[in-house]
Amino acid sequence: MKKTLLLLPLLLAGCSFAPHYQRPSTPPATQWKPVEGWQPAAPADDRPRGDWWTAFDDATLNDLMGRAIARNNTLAQAVATYREARAATKEARASFFPTVSLDGSVTHTATGASRTIVNGSTSSTGSKSSTNYAVTLGASWEPDLFGKVANTVSNAKATEQARLADLANARLALEGELATDYLSLRASDAQIASYTATLAAYQRALQITTNQYNAGIAPHSDVYQAQSQLASAQSDLEGEKRTRTQFEDAIAVLVGENPATFTLPSIGTTWAPTVPDVPVALPSAILQRRPDIASAERQVAAANAEIGVEKAAFFPTVSLSADGGFNNNSLAGLFTSAASLWSVGAQVAETILDFGARSARVRQAREAYNAQVANYRQVTLTAFQDVQDNLVASVVLAKQETLLRQASVAADKSEQSLLNQYRAGTIAYTDVATAQATALTARRALIQAQVDRQNAAVALVQALGGGWQQADLTNGAEAQRAEDLHKAEQP
Q1: Integer Rg of the chain from CA
Q2: What's this model's pTM, rounded to 2 decimal places?
Q3: What is the pLDDT of residues 82-126, one digit of tens each?
Q4: Gap between the Cα atoms of 55 and 399, Å rounded
Q5: Does 334 reside within a domain?
Q6: Is 385 helix (H, G, I), strand (E, B) or coil?
Q7: Which helix (H) or strand (E) holds 328?
Q8: How is 29-59 classified by DSSP, letter by letter?
Q9: Beta bridge partners of residue 130, listed in sequence order
Q10: Angle in degrees, CA 145, 149, 151, rounded to 5
Q11: 3-state secondary structure (DSSP) of residue 296
Q12: Is 390 within 8 Å of 459 (Cβ atoms)?
């Protein structure tokens, strides 16, 4: 009978009241919506998944990415949050084991001298003192009879895994934001170079109209119109310089530097945008690749374990304790058998009446679980939407760039032709001004289309959960999480 009582805690230790966990179902998806003109790209086997931005073939971007990953404060915050969650898991696991304490004390007691008068005579008693030495070793343990500790650990572990996925998501967001800002800055460089060339052409046009006016061939209004167009373009150039500065400042913050001391040299007219082909995984693979989906799923698991924690409150708690030590008024005799003492105890506690508080907490836990399930499904649907939208954007923007390039070439030719006709005096300057404005707009639109294609490629990479590998598109997320875990564990 005694053996049965001793084994009872061990037999009940595996009991858990958390519902059996299954990953929530999501809407079935086996393919992407057909997009005219799109063909699956061949995976770039020479591009490592973690360094997907190297596909843009820009050494400056590669350098900035390294600096951002090492110094970005938002990423550092995500690392610290993950480490905090990992420490919380270790704390929860410690509850499986007894708590052991060691106490030592020395007590010195003294009484003062006293005087007593009896029948007219006085007697005195001297002061007394004593010293007591004690050493006590104690242990207490609350066996996990109904799975409260086990489910608490499961909750903490799932939360830790969610924070690791959040870390991967923070890194992916940082990489995407930095790439977008940098590519936009380079497009701004191209816009500034285009404006600079346009201003030179407008200056020449102003000189032509001035000469025509001085010769009595053209009215003064032609000069005014040329001056207005030149000043307007100069104002637009200043606005573009401001835009570039804003992108430069944003990049400085992302790489952890002071914008006041951070600069990126302009590349002028050497901009040659590269748009990589991004292999698109099947919809089912997105569930394994995207860190935000992984985080949402782990939060569901944590909420499921919390239900078990709250259900365990309906059952009694058992606490076991044991103390042993030595107590003596002599240090030399402290550790003798005569000075030894020990005690063993057990305590059972149960809540008899709480007016529905425990039931309410269980209902709260269940609804928190339902909320996390809904969030997981919403995150998944949003992920599918992100990929589909950016897949369409990649195809449409490629077509637009081709058409805008044709429009820009035609507008440039029209501008030059009308300017020659104006010199010959066969047309009014209004026609030239209109052609010049059309050509400038076409050039700006072409540059914007080019950077939009690059940014769409970045967005598609983010929507897919990161870069790619030729061998396996679905194992990349695990590799990235392992890399993030290794970096997060560094001191």
Answers
A1: 38
A2: 0.82
A3: 999 999 999 899 888 888 888 888 888 877 656 666 666 666 665
A4: 21
A5: no
A6: helix
A7: strand 317-328
A8: --SPPP-TT--PPPP-TTS-GGGGGGGG--H
A9: 109
A10: 105
A11: helix
A12: yes
Q: How many whole angstroms separate alpha carbon 170 and alpha carbon 74?
A: 8
CATH number at residue 177: 1.20.1600.10
Tokens at residue 67, please?
Answer: 């600096």
- Mapping DSSP to helix (H, G, I), strand (E, B) and coil, where does residue 113 land? coil
Across-strand partners of 341?
Answer: 325
Q: What is the token pair recorded at 392?
A: 């369409």
The answer to whether residue 170 sits within a structural domain is yes
Quote the CA–CA distance of 491 and 479 in Å, as a whole number: 21
C-alpha 273/C-alpha 291 separation (Å) is: 29
Distances (CA, A) of 181 to 68, 178, 342: 13, 5, 70
- Is 36 within the bounds of a domain? yes
Whether 3 shows a pLDDT value over 50: the answer reads no
Query: Which residues touch 119 (CB under 8 Å, ≥6 apart)?
Result: none
How far is Cα 149 from Cα 160, in angstroms, rounded to an integer? 16
Is residue 70 assigned to a domain?
yes
Bridge partner residues of 129 (DSSP): 110
Considering only residues 214 and 41, tell me which one the structure prediction assigns the higher pLDDT. Answer: 214
Q: Give the separation between CA 308 and CA 158, rounded to whole angstroms.
A: 14
Q: How many domains, in total, are found in the chain? A: 1
> Do residues 299 and 368 lie in contact, with contact meaning Cβ atoms separated by under 8 Å?
no
Report residue 411 as tokens.
Answer: 């507008």
Domain that holds residue 239: 29-99+144-316+355-488
